Amino acid sequence: MKLDSTGAKLVIVEPGGALSGQRVGVSPAVARAAATAVLEAHPGEAMGQAIPVRLVGLEEIPEGVVVLDADLARRLELAETTRAAWALRTTGFLRQQVEELELEATVERPLEQLVDELSRDSSLSGRLLLARGGATTGDMWIDVAGETFRVRQLRPAPTSGEWLYETGPQTRFSLFAPALRSSVDVVILADCSGSMSWNDITDAADVTPEPPPPAPEPPPPPPKRSLFRSLLGLDTPAEEPPPPFIKPVKTIQRIEALRRALDNLLEVRLRTPGRVSRIALVAFTERCTARFPRGGGMVEMDENAPPELVQQFRDAIALLQPEKAGTNIGNALNHAAELLDKHGRPGNDRLIVLISDGADWKPKSGDDAGELVRGVDEPVSLMEDLNQRMRISLHALGISNEDIFWPWWRRNHGEQGAHPSIVPNHKLLEAMVVVGGGDPTRTGDATVLGDYFSGLGRGVSRRLSLQARPAENPRPTNAERARLRERLATLSRSKAASESQARRDQLCEEIHALFRTANEYGRSLAGQDVFRVSTESIEVLHKLMFEPCRNKREFDWWWRKLHQQFLELRDVRIADPEKPYPVPGIKRWLHGQETAALNHLRNWCSHHWLAPGDEEERRKFARYLERVREILLKLTGRPVLEEDDEAAWVTLQLAMLQQLRDILAASVDVFRTASAAAHAPPPVVPLSGMIYVG
Description:
- By secondary structure, the protein is α/β, with parallel strands linked by helices.
- The chain is 38% helix and 18% strand.
- It contains 21 helices and 23 strands.
- Strands 15, 18, 19, 20, 21 and 22 form a 6-stranded mixed β-sheet that branches.
- The protein starts with a strand and ends in a 15-residue tail after the last helix.
C-alpha cells in the first residue's frame, strides 16, 4: 500500500501527544493493513529523506489523509502543499526484529551515569530504525534521554535492500564508551585549481529513477566507495551506462562536490561532542589563501561553537571557486604544517585533510620523465617527513576519478584525447596517505572523517538492564481528538491560501525566471553569479517560494529561508561599500533602500523582541516597532497582524513576493541595459516588443 502527494493529503498538527515522535496518523483501514511504514520526503531528489514510522489509526482521519506532528514535518521539510513531494509506503522493505543494538556514547560523561539514564528511558522500547544493505551502521544516530548516540552495531546486519528494524523484548542493548582521546588540530586544504571547474560529477538532484525491472542475474559486487557516492548519495557507478529507466542527468562541477564534502565535514564536527578541534580552511592552487578563520591562523570549532563562527565557516565554504591556476600540493602541505606548528596546541593530534581531484603524477623515475606536478619538491617524500618528524597525519578525499571522468568525456567530446591536467588522478593522493599514516584503501571515503571525529577506538562496553516491551501506540485523549477534528475541519473551510494560489504561483514562476536571468548576466558581466547557489539550493528555493503561509510561525520560517537564499548569498561586492560592482546601478536595487524593508522584516522574523529596561534602549525599541508597523500597514493595510489570521499572513506573503519580484525585475533591466551597451552594436532601428525572461 502506498499513499503519496499525488493523490493524498498531508495534515500537520501541533507536536505532542499520541501523534509525535515516530508515530503518524492514518485512517483505521491503513493502520489495519500494516503497523509500520517508511515515510519518504522529496523522494528521488537531493534533499530527499526516508524515515521509519509507526502507523496510528484514528477514526477522525479519513481515507487519503496522513497526519504528522509539526516537529517531524519541519525535520523532513514538508508542508501542507501539493508541491511538497512525499510518499508513505508499507511495502518495498524487509521488516526485522533487532537482536542486538550497541550504542556509542559521543559525550565525555561518566559511563555508569549514561548507562543508568538509558536503562531508565522507555523510548528505546519499540524504536524503529531504517537501514540499507551495504551501508555502515556508523552513519546511523539515535536520540535517547536528551543525548545523541551513534549506532555502533546492529544485528542482524542488513544485507541487501531496505530494512526496517524494530526493537522489542528480544533485543539486547549495550553502550560502548571509547577511551578518552586528546583534542585534534585540523587544516583543511581545498583544491581550487582550474581542473576543479570541470563538471563531470553526476548531480543526484537531477536523477529521477523509476522502478527498475527485475534483474535476471545477481548484480556484480559494488565498486570501491568514492567521495561523490558517499557524500552525494549516488549508488550507480558512473562507469556503467545508465539503465533504460534513468533519465538523462545533469552534472556538477568538481568544486561543488568539494563544497558539499566540506559541508558534510562541518556537520560531522558539530554533531560530535567531547573533543575540541582547532580548524583552518585553506584554498590552494599554486599558492595558498586562508579562507577560515578570516584573519588566518586556527580557531576552535566544536559542538559549542557560536552560530556566528559556524556561519563564517559556511560562508568560507561557499566562496571557494576554481581559479585559472595549476596545482602545487607540496606547497600546500608545507603551508598546512606551518599552521599546525605555529597555531596548534601541544599534545593535540594533528591532521591535514586534503580535498582534491589529484594531480598529474607518475612515480618518480630517474629522469623525472612524465612528472607534471610541482611540489617542494616531492609531495610523497614531504608528507612522509611531516608524519615522522611532526606527527602529522593525512586524510585525502578524492574528487571524481578516472572511472567517472572518461565515460563523461566520451559522451561529451567523443574519442579526442583529454589534456592530462584535467584528468583526475588519485594515485598521488593514495601514495601520500600511505606515508601520512592513513588508509589508502579509503582515500575518498568521507566516513573515515566521521570515524576520526567520533573518537572510535578501544573502550569499554556495558550491557543495559533495559527490558524492552512490545510497542504500544498511546491512545489519544479526548482533548487531542477534539483538536484533530477541529484541525481537519479548519482545513476544509480554509480558503485564503487556496484562493491566493494562482497569484502566488505566478509570482514565484516570475521570480524563479528572473533569478536565473540575473545570475546569467552576473556571470557574463561581473564574472560570477549574483546569488551564490548550487543546483541543490535552486531546487530548495523553488520549493520554498511556493509554500503558503497561514500564520506567523509559518511566515517567520518561510521568510528567513527565502531571505537567506536571495539577500544573504549575494555576490559579496554588492553588499560591501568598499568594493565596486562591475555593473553600475545594481547596488541600488540589491543593497540599500530598496531592500531595507525586506531586511527589517527578516530581523522581525528572527528575534523574539522584549522591551528592554534601559530608557534609551526602550526608545530604540519603540522606534523599531513603529517601523515594523509602518511596513505591515503599507503591505497589508494593518499595522498589527494576529498570529493566526490566515488572510492577513497570506496577504503579507503575496506582498513580499511582489516586492522581491519587482527588485529582481529592476535588477535584470539594469543588467540588460549594461549588456546591450557592452556587447551590442548601435542599432539602426530602435527595437521594441516584448522581452521573454527565461
